[in-house]
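Two records follow; treat each independently.
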Amino acid sequence: MDRSANTILVASRKPEGHVAACLVLATTRLDVNGLVRQRLGVRKASFASPEQTKALTGMEIGGVTVFGLPSEIPVWIDSRVLAPEWVIIGAGTRTAKIKLDPKQFSSIDGAEVVEDLALLPASA
């Protein structure tokens, strides 16, 4: 689990229309109500619905990848994702995964590495 990373699409609720794709380790919890909401510049944000995720990315939850997203969706990568020698991420479909060196995320145009985008579990 400490080498698995999930791409989570976050959408604003107030005001609507702001989204971001966030890549975090499976062992952490995305800080939606803190840092993500703040970076989006909105009052309320939450995980995008399965329908919204599919409409915006063309991918289903459980298979969303940071590669090949529309250019208007910012990609934010929690800095902890870069620490392991390799990680496993979604491949754009729920039936496939990609094992890769996290350095490859630098090839994503406009992707930003963000400190503390995700929170460690309370027991850590």
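The next record belongs to a different protein.
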Amino acid sequence: MSRIGKMPIPLPTGVTANIDGSHIVVKGPRGELARTFHPDMIVGEEAGILHVTRPTEQKMHKQLHGLSRALLANMVTGVSAGFQRVLNIEGVGYRAEVQGNDLVLNVGFSHPVRFEPPTGIKFSVDKTGRIVTIEGSDKEVLGELAAKIRRVRPPEPYKGKGILYAGERIRRKAGKAGKAKK
């Protein structure tokens, strides 16, 4: 039995789940998320607790069991508490700012790079312009957007300049000056 798949998903107060076969809609204080799961996975609710079960012990069903439960748990967490991802900007002259709803990055290009947020996503930047916080209820969309922003200027190993996730460590290289002499 899947350790993750067999765990129950408690619904916090103010969160409701509407199960219509394999299509599930979860509503909460931070919005509404909908997803269609694999038709073989069985999702049920009893007394404010969601359960995901699988019909057989086939390899595919075992794989889908844990995945379906994790996706459903992320939906519940997203509409109740939400998710956030923090990016740090390192480098002389590198900064970010929010103009309207858009995120504008100045990271060494001849032009600023602008990101328009998808629905349900909000940008915020600290007053130094070095820490970008992305908040939203859909974990999948949030992670993809954070990865796209990081891809604009990934951190380089010589000076450590670029956009990196909070807590991410970059392996530094010595460069030409650190080369051993023969």
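Discussion point: The chain has a mean pLDDT of 92. How would you locate this feature using only the token line?
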